[in-house]
Amino acid sequence: MEAPIKITLARKDYQLKQILALQRANLIESVDADTASAQGFVTATHDLPLLQRMTAAAASVIAIRERKVLGYCLAMTRDFSEDIPALTFLIQRQDSLMHRGQLLGESEYIIMGQICVAEEARGLRLPDRMYKYLRACYHLRYTYCVTAIDARNTRSQHVHERVGFEELDRFTSADGRNWILVIWNWRDGMEGFGED
């Protein structure tokens, strides 16, 4: 019998290295068109020093079986907008948007930098479990979770909608790619949470 898949925070370098390997295997440049369409893909790459700094600011969530990372959900604070050029534009754009009557830039939110599940663990709703864990870890500090989805990645769009994200904006980046900016209000459904 296989060991269960545990959802937890990534804190160790071996976990971060496995995140990077899973990321490389699922880059849009690394997967064929059929896989990209049916299973999704990732578009950004990170390196170990950057992941270590991100982890120090806000640890990412992983799905792990024994010592093998089967999925990840990269948490990222606004502080990293200068480290990732694509993120600089994204944060400037989303900070200028209104959401529920408030300027997003005046709100506390965490950025979900990327989510990915290993091929052998797909179909187990690991994104749902990882997002639920992310929310449980950070909902007291952040009101929202925000991410941008490549408009070609319909699989990711469906997953984010199922989890509870709402579309906030659509835009085209300087490189001509179309993006969908989505937001998840972590205060929704939290009424009475933690009360006796």
TrEMBL record:
MF term (GO), any: transferase activity
Keywords in alphabetical order, please: Transferase
Q: Which InterPro entries match?
A: Acyl_CoA_acyltransferase (IPR016181)
What SUPFAM superfamilies does the record tag this protein with? Answer: Acyl-CoA N-acyltransferases (Nat) (SSF55729)
This chain's protein is named GNAT family N-acetyltransferase
